[in-house]
Amino acid sequence: MAASFAPLQRLVISIAVLASFVTFLDGTVVNVALPAISRELGGGITTQQWVVDAYLITLSALILLAGSVSDAYGRVLVMRIGLIAFGVASIAVAAAIDPLMLIIARAAQGAAGALLVPSSLALITATMRADVQSRAIGVWTAFTTGAQLVGPLLGGLFVDYLSWRFVFLINVIPIGITLLLLARLHLPEHPRGIKVDWWSGALCAIGLGAVVFALIEQPNMGWQSPAIWIPAVAGAALFALFLWRQQHSTSPLMPLWLFRVRDFGWGNLATFFVYAALSLNGFVVGVYLQQGAGLSATAAGLASLPMTILMILVSSRAGQWAGKWGPRIFMTVGPLLMAVGALMLLFVAAEFDYWWQVLPAMIVMGLGLSLTVAPLTAAILGAIDENHSGIASAVNNAVSRVAGLLVVAMLSTIVGGTLDLDGFHSAAWVTATLLVIGGVVSWIGIRRNPAESVPADVAASGPDPH
How many CA atoms lie within 13 A of 54 on its CB side? Predict the structure, then answer.
């Protein structure tokens, strides 16, 4: 931890990193466990999609509700509840006896995880501002994204030498440490009487869930099946109703006025494309290297290690650079560099060679990712005043989760029904395209200085935090 941080700031950053660690870890550690889960519990690519998306549905839908609850009742209280619930749900996942139990437990895990990310990052944005906040977000990004990327390695080791079930118990230690640190954190937090819109939370969750169900199951039943098009239409209608309610509610879960702040609106659009690409790449690489290239789960997890190392080495410094020079150039160059790395995966052939076909792509993608994530987060959250830091963090995280949710739901369509070599190459093209769009969006929309004040007319249109 940088010496320039005060003791309270170091404690806050440590708690934020550890609390986010468990959700990021569980979101990615599952990828290398999917083949083992399929072998033991049954089900093909559809079950694999559901194991990932059940977690993402509740996480992305309820993270908005959790951000509002965090602002209303206090970040520390919400985080403590989330940590305990996440631990209980993780045990249920590890004990699953069939795909249905596993999927339900994964959904519960995502719901608990929704309480953690917005409250943890909001602790940083509420207690630090300006360049100190940028550096803190850089540290947070390095460690949490490092956890997200090292997850496949840890998962692979557990799958090969113990069982895929232990993959979901990895987070017990960080949960325990975080609860101990929370007991030492004393912040002047009091319930602020903010009304929480529970109905909007239900509309968002059910709407997203119905659309994702249709996208995942449509390759099996076809769009002409009422079991597909009815949930698709109903889900889209419910989500549209959710957006309408946000426009007219006095206490919206996702205040649409936030998107009138230029860096916040454009930054979240860039987030959508970049994180859709990352989710697609993580799923496809984790599964194909085992089922297609014949690697062990541990070897498949090691494949992403170069990205982890680069994130830890470069990300914190990129956060400092963004605080000094602005995030625009990093948010443009980073995704374009990642796109080059994604296209390098087209060299993967039937005669597989990790060192020449995969490693160079991982290095290039790792460099691009390291330049992107901290400036992206700093640009988005630095554009919003601290009274709305919880909901701003929740919205940004929800956007990234929804992006991953939708792209995984469309996986069968992207890879042509089977994750063979041709499907792997198709996924690489789609990943690169998404990243290029993310870079272009950043160049067009992001200002040089993310710390500029929120325009008075925009701030006035937001809800009164008191």
Answer: 20
